[in-house]
# Entry
Amino acid sequence: MNIIVSGGGTGGHIYPALTIIRAIQEMEPSARILYVGGRNGLEADIVPREGIDFIAMDLAGFERKITLENIGRVWRALRAVARARGIVQGFQPNVAIGTGGYAAGPILLAASLAGVPTLVQEQNVFAGVTNRILAKFATAIAVGMEDAQNVFPKEKTYVTGNPIRPEVLTATRADGARAFGFDPAKKTVLVSGGSRGARSINRAMVEVIARAAEQTEVQYLHVTGADEHGDTLARIRNAGVRLEEHPHLRVLPYLYNMPEAMAMADVAVFRAGATGLAELAARGVPAILIPYPYAAENHQEKNARSVEAAGAAEVILNSDLSGAVLEQSLHGLLADDARRTVMAAAMKRLGKPEAAEEIAALALRISKREG
# Structure
């Protein structure tokens, strides 16, 4: 059996794809997997590390306005579709799976036009443009959140939850503390703006870290994103903090071992990407969510409000974010053990740890034209 998987641009599209691949390999060990992604996306780095065959295509997402750059991207997109047709013809997949992002568009469209069964996996409450278009051609659609099923044709839409890496469930608090040199007995805050980082969160955290430097009862692991790391470190130094003197404060550019970080977190400060939310839910980590304000169709705020309504998170809009606001919210949560316990239970109820297996089984069903 041959299976093409595509999705990229950010970790929110890549890690679900990798998790689905692992689940398929458990069910069909002989399956040949080919991952198709963008040449400049994070997938070009992450996927080959996993030992998965990878083909890179030259393409980029579109800006949401008419620009000269967009005209060039249209031409690249057309070339990508032609390249995708060649990949599909050469690999002869039994099914194609897309997890979103502009990288998935050409390959799933080419597969569908070639008569290959296709599965679209949508993580967010509000579907992205690529997946809304692909859904018209798809054999089946797997959605991560119940509210998302209203966007797609009901007869081929399945509420599966979002796939999470197995390590998210198996990592322990002791594993996390050991990995980052922390004390497992102390409260720990995990801060991440997503795989590419978030400048507004990083700037707010400078003030939080400056105040936390002498308050060693709470540990902070702050993931800045690679592009923001140097600037954030410089601002922390300018605030008078020498991180090497404070082992309870860690500021890193990127994490390949996020599951271990989540395992030791008592509170998370996150954007509201669907994959991160699914992993926090599986671990039952209460969260302060700061939705990315420029996400397509404002889908991150919709994600965040859904989690907030369940009693599992607080939401701070990006426009309201400051160091003082974030510190006040963190202080309130860290000081109230009973409230954190209630939020943790609410977050856990949102989790769907078997999502990857459900999606893999659905993909295999439609590959045999049973779904």
